Amino acid sequence: MTGVGLRGTSGKAGLLKNVQLFQGLSERQLQQIARLADEMDVPAGKVLARAGETGHEMFVIVEGQASVTTSQRRTLQLGAGDFFGEMSLLDGGPRSATVEAATPMRLLVIGQREFFSLLAEAPLISKGIMRTLSQRLRKADAAFSTCT
């Protein structure tokens, strides 16, 4: 895994700028998010979220690939700039899928308390999360429709 030099807040903010969820935010807002997020490197094969368990954080993929397996046994891939784990934080329900590192990964992790602070501070992020959830629901609905 290549080192990106994320150790400082400005390095994290620079990466967040490339994440669709955070596009359109000011530099100040990106810096705030960077302060809230922890950086984490994980090896391939590590389970990051398990379907049915309660989630306490969301993840933003900086580098690497993750495999997502839904309860319907569908698998999809996530890569740099994608995020996951937000649904469980929003509704307090169990994780809807299992996510495993397919390659070594570098992640930014935002805990539950920081997540809600972030939503209150930057309404554009709430819109981005709602847009992504809606897109995911539409894809799941379309996939379900083709199976019946």
Count of DSSP E strands? Answer: 8
Global morphology = globular
For the terminal residues, how far apart are their CA atoms? Answer: 42 Å
Q: What class would the helix/strand composition place it in?
A: alpha+beta
Supply the CATH class: Mainly Beta
Q: Report the major sheet.
A: 4 strands, antiparallel
| Rg estimate, integer Å | 15 Å
What are the segments in which pLDDT stays under 50 over at least 5 consecutive residues?
1-6
Could you tell me the CATH topology label.
Jelly Rolls
Query: What is the count of helical runs?
Result: 5
Q: Strand order, biggest sheet? A: 1-8-3-6
Reading the helices and strands in chain order gives HHEEEEEEHEEHH
> Any guess at the CATH architecture?
Sandwich
Task: Please indicate the count of domains.
Answer: 1
Task: Spell out the CATH superfamily.
Answer: Jelly Rolls
Overall average pLDDT: 83
Percentage of residues in DSSP E strands: 25-35%
Percentage of residues assigned to helices: 25-40%
Organism: Candidatus Segetimicrobium genomatis
Membrane topology: Multi-pass membrane protein
GO molecular function: intracellularly cyclic nucleotide-activated monoatomic cation channel activity; protein-containing complex binding
Pfam family, one: cNMP_binding
